[in-house]
Amino acid sequence: MIRVLLADDQALVRAGFRALLDAQPDIEVAGEAADGEEALRRVRELRPDVVLMDIRMPVLDGLAATRRITSDAEPADVKVVMLTTFELDEYVFEAIRAGASGFLVKDAEPDELLRAVRTVVDGDALLSPGVTRRLIAEFAARSKEPAAAGALARLTEREREVMALVGIGLSNEEIARRLVVSPLTAKTHVSRTMVKLGARDRAQLVVLAYESGLVRPGWLG
Distance (Å, rounded) from C-alpha 33 to C-alpha 7? Predict the structure, then answer.
């Protein structure tokens, strides 16, 4: 059973999400929070698998709450999916850098929300949809100049190639087709790359791809 915490300052939004999620045989809503500070307390108390976190909340915003949750050693495995009203929310790229496993717009279809919860629990990140690719490219373009690529020296040539493809938003299946390998082989390369670079998940691997200069904004394949 996937346990979800809902963090949003609008009770009506939480009620809608709860009705949808609790109707699923493999998902349950473990609790709710109306601001970022309450979300932190509830995460430590309830130990959910996934937090659906609104970016704009009182007391402590979703970005700051996410940074604290993902840097907290206890619990270590909680995944955060950011919720935003606008596709080009100014905080989305920073949210991913803070450790969020992805994000959704609040008017996403119900199936998208359910798929998001199940995706992040499986260890993947919400980086395949076209809107995500545009957002990452947009905010990477506004970020600082690429850092030194010294960390990439740990990677093999194939792992760099795979990291670049992850960076432009390709799924494991798409990477497999591009490199003419099996999806399992592609997944193995991605996993090894994450381990070598200390990336929390696929989302942070994308950030590292941009920050190292391996991928530049606009290289969407």
Answer: 5
